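Progress narrative, Year 2. Work on CMP/dCMP-type deaminase domain-containing protein from Plasmodium yoelii 17X advanced from sequence curation to structure prediction during this period.
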Amino acid sequence: MMVELSNDEAISFLKQALHEAEKSLKVETKEMPIFCLLINEKKEIISSSYNCTNESKNGCRHCEIIAIDKYIYGKNYEKMKNKNLIKCFNNNTNSINKSLSNYFSELKNIDKEFEDNKENTNCTKEHSINFEQIQKEITKKIQKLKKFTIVVTCEPCIMCVYALKLVGIQDIYFCCLNERFGGCGSVLSLHQVYENMNVHYIECNDCTNKSINLMKLFYKSGNPSAPDEKRKRPLAEISLEQ
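Result:
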C-alpha cells in the first residue's frame, strides 16, 4: 500500500522540513536551505536531509538523493555515500538484481585494487566493506521504496525528479515552485511523461513564504564556497530573526 498524505498531514511534514531547512544556513559551508523527508507507508519519517552540494563539492548531492541514499545504505552511509548507487537504476534491459550484482562486482574490484595498492601508498582504510551483505539489504529496501513518498520544501529539480522515478517513488509533495530548474511543472512536467508519478503542490502561504525567504537569505549572504573571482556579492552574516 502506497502512502497518500492529506493536505493537513502534508503541511505538518512541510513545517518540520522547513524548520530543519533553516539549520542548513548555520553550517560552516552554508547550504541551499531545501530539506527533504522520506515518508514510509506508516507515515513515519525514515530518512531526511538538506542539500550537501557545497560540503561535498558535488552539484548532484541534492537533498532528495541524499535522503534516499541514507535510507538505502543505513549504517553504511558514510562508507558508501560516494559510490554512485543511482546508476543501478538507469537500466532498461537488465533487472534491478542483475544491475546490483554488476554494480557490486565493480565495487569489489575497485576495493581489491585499493587493498593491493595500499602498501605502496599513504592511504589507510578504517573498515573493510561487506559488499555481499550490503547488496542483500539494499535489494530489500529498494522494493519498499515504491511504497514511500517524498516531502520537500521546494519543487524537485529535473535531475531529482528523474532520480525519484528511477527508484520508484510515485508521490512528491512540495510547497514552493522552482522556476529555474523545476521538474514538476515549472520548467518541465516530467510527472506527465512518467507513468505512476503524482505531484502535489501544497498551497500553504506560511510554508511557501518561509521556503522563499530562507532561499533569499542564502543568496543574500553569498556563497562561501564560491571562488572570490566568481562571487557576485560579498559574504554577509545571516540573520534568521523574523
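The mean pLDDT is 83. The two ends are 41 Å apart (CA to CA).
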